[in-house]
């Protein structure tokens, strides 16, 4: 009886917290994001957490339609919540260094992922984002939910063409 209750409890936990994983699968397709940290709870390749597009799109996500300084008119962005990606990797720390394909980087407090519905956008207007269109990943703040975020502080953290995230204390 106790074993059945334990399995039921574990099954309910998995249903209630789908981004919690005991292990992170290895990517089957092209790696588009690598997360590194002093310690990751769920590394899948060496000491990093690497993701392909299907892995990212399987995480808890959000879609938001908003205006940005980098696009014309309202644009619909969708992708996993940044906090869901960090949880899947088991990344802990206080600062994220978001690094683009051209090695541009920005420091982002982990608090932005925890408290704001920041999107690691994989799609713009329903289409996967190519490098030409600021892809494969673009950190989007919830400008549609909070107009006070529409300022230079958050614009400077909105990195596009993201390739990796380094997590530090």
TrEMBL record:
InterPro entries: OxRdtase_Mopterin-bd_dom (IPR000572), OxRdtase_Mopterin-bd_sf (IPR036374). Residues 67-142 form the Oxidoreductase molybdopterin-binding domain. Residues 1-23 form the signal peptide. Keywords: Plasmid, Signal. It holds the Pfam family Oxidored_molyb. This is Molybdopterin-dependent oxidoreductase. The lineage of its organism: Bacteria, Pseudomonadati, Pseudomonadota, Alphaproteobacteria, Hyphomicrobiales.
């Amino acid at each position: 009886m106790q074993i059945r209750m334990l399995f039921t409890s574990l099954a309910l936990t998995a249903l209630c917290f789908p981004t919690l994983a005991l292990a992170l699968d290895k990517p089957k397709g092209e790696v588009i994001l690598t997360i590194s940290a002093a310690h990751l709870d769920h590394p899948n390749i060496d000491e990093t957490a690497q993701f392909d597009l299907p892995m990212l799109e399987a995480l808890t996500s959000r879609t938001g339609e908003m205006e940005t300084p980098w696009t014309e008119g309202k644009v619909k962005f969708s992708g996993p919540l940044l906090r869901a990606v960090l949880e899947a990797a088991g990344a802990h720390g206080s600062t994220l260094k978001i690094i683009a394909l051209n090695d541009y980087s920005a420091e982002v407090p982990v608090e932005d992922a925890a408290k704001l519905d920041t999107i690691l956008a994989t799609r713009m207007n329903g289409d996967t984002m190519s490098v030409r269109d600021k892809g494969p990943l673009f950190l989007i703040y919830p400008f549609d939910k909070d107009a006070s975020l529409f300022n230079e502080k958050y614009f400077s953290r909105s990195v596009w063409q993201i390739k990796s995230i380094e997590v530090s204390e």
